[in-house]
TrEMBL record:
It comes from Wenxinia saemankumensis. Keywords: Hydrolase, Magnesium, Metal-binding. PANTHER family: INORGANIC PYROPHOSPHATASE. This is inorganic diphosphatase. InterPro entries: Pyrophosphatase, Pyrophosphatase_sf. GO terms for molecular function: inorganic diphosphate phosphatase activity; magnesium ion binding. It holds the Pfam family Pyrophosphatase. Its cofactor is Mg(2+). The keyword Metal-binding applies. The lineage of its organism: Bacteria, Pseudomonadati, Pseudomonadota, Alphaproteobacteria, Rhodobacterales.
Length: 175
């Protein structure tokens, strides 16, 4: 279903925006993943009172250093449905690592603002977000990883230029 359709989606649009495939909508207590058949499946239920602070997904047809498509956090004023494909502007990166098969592995989250967002239209870099934004997201991921009993560490943050470089590196053949 989604898997076949996504093979035809370029990571970037003609104007340089990034395509974001939303797996988990903002406000969800469930973590969704697209399986090998292209179906969206619930993989984790978060505790009462914990929900995804923004939509979470990936950039189609990319490969991050961990071997998966590049993870991306999509900033919007409200939720968008799982399975949505949204054009966005990259604004930064939250650098993280977590345990993969007994070894700590980088698992960064690119941060992007939906192009159609009026609320966040003036945001160009991670530093433009409200005070505490990055800390809030990092704390969410720390809590999430603690809940699933997976070692996790925050490595740092980067602005738009560093995130865009990571995105270009994740596109097979470059961008």
């Amino acid at each position: 279903m989604f898997h076949e359709a996504l093979t035809h989606v370029a990571p970037l649009t003609e104007d340089g925006s990034v395509h974001v495939f939303v797996e988990t909508p903002k406000g969800s207590r469930h973590k969704y993943d697209v399986d090998d058949h292209g179906l969206v499946r619930i993989t984790v239920e978060l505790p009462e009172g914990v929900s995804f602070p923004f939509s979470f997904g990936f950039v189609p047809n990319t490969k991050a250093p961990d071997g998966d498509p590049l993870d991306i956090l999509l900033v919007t004023a409200g939720p968008v449905p799982a399975g949505a494909l949204i054009e966005a502007r990259v604004i930064g990166v939250l650098k993280m690592e977590n345990d993969e098969d007994g070894q700590m592995t980088r698992n960064d989250r690119i941060v992007a603002v939906a192009k159609m967002s009026r609320v966040f239209s003036g945001v160009e870099t991670l530093s433009d977000m409200r005070h505490g934004f990055a800390w809030d997201i990092e704390h969410f991921f720390a809590t999430y990883n603690e809940m699933i009993e997976r070692p996790f560490a925050i490595v740092g943050r980067g602005e738009r230029d560093e995130a865009e470089a990571m995105l270009r590196d994740a596109i097979p053949g470059g961008a």
